[in-house]
Amino acid sequence: MLTRLVPVSLHQDPCLARHLHLPVGLLDDLTHRGFIQDVSSPESLRSALASKPQAVYAGVDPTAKSLHIGHLIPFMALLHFQIRGHRIIPLIGGATGRIGDPSGRLVERQLADIQQVDANVHSLTTSIHNFFSRALAYAASRFEKDGVACAEPNVTSNLEWHHDFTMLDFLQHVGVHARVNTMLNRESVRARLHTKQGLSFTEFTYQLLQAYDFYHLYKHYGCTIQVGGSDQWGNIIAGLELIGKLEHRSSDTQPGAYAITTPLLTTSTGEKFGKSAGNAVWLDSDLTSIFDFYQYFIKVTDVDVEKYLKLFTLLSWDEIQDIVDIHNVHPDKRYAQRRLAAEVTELVHNKEGVVQAETLTKLLFDSDYAGLKTDDVISAFAGDSRLVIATEQNVLDMPVAKLASKYGLISSNSAARTLIKSRGLYVNNQTVPDPQFKVTESLLIDNRIIILRAGKDKQLVLIVR
What we know:
This protein is 44% helix and 12% strand. By secondary structure, it is α/β, with parallel strands linked by helices. The strands form 3 sheets. It has a 6-stranded mixed beta sheet with strand order 1-6-5-2-3-4, with helices on both faces. A 5-stranded mixed beta sheet has the order 9-13-12-10-11. Strand 7 and strand 8 form a beta hairpin. Helix 10 packs across helix 11.
């Protein structure tokens, strides 16, 4: 359900996060962490941030029903604003999503199905609220604090004001202030004008629609800052220019609004951040499992890991440097990647998600099962066919070869015996010595767990009922 924006006094602090003991200023922190590509009037913005709470927005295209990890960059920037007492407005393009932003594209987008866009807006609203709710819980656990009670983000769709805005009204109030030569000079426009397909009038006007979003939020809700990707610079500047013209601000006065763009993030191999084997890594656990989400960050290269620790965690500068120093002593242990994966998984999926992912990782990839707890294993394998609840009689009285066959780890008893002869069947990572070998109570992990493995990576987890 969309949250309709409610005007808030510009002097009202919506967050008790002023009690967080943060060591550096917001703009300095964002710059150090790598969030800043370009910023308009940086010194004026610095003064504005220090003088009173600001409102900041970032746009989300409703091209899918869920957020993916590419959204972490603008949303982590918003989170840094939020925990310092500023108001945040994640704006879903329910109107502009029907057209499509030409920025960064060489061909025109297919016009979106309106019903699909509306459905995506609804789903994204829930996703965004879930993200910031969990992110604030994560923030509260990372800072020395007297209390954290930030206001919920104002999640809305720009269809709220564009829906009844007629073309004639738009031309009269917005179009009259737009200079075509300036619009043609935007990078997103120039790049497309030199292609065979060219640029449609629909896409050409996109920058004015986005500019009006910034003006509307500025005028009615005191929003003074827009955050967007580096390919959005021209669109955001168009918003600043429209605000200046409609508010009759002269060029020699202090700016009333500001632009911040974040860099395009790619991996050390040149791939676009957020893809795994060509597929998006979603924040929704129904689309990307918590385990696969965690594993994406475990697999980050040594070259990228420090950069990601700065961008996607709230660890302090000193903590990150300590992690990197420890990692560099024994990089094969992937200490920094493990810490990164745990932090980002907690940010997105809470602490329970970390326990689930780490438990599954330990079961699948580690050789030491010490410390495993039955409840954690059951939670980690929820819905997974590799988890079997068995009677104590079956587990203790039946030879391991028959257990492996009975519960589907191996196709038959004879195949199990053959595997045992080649020393390829394991109980708790110990080789099964002969076909008649049985599990004893002393082998049960946490008094209930037995882990069978066939070969290198085929596993079965038996839990004694």
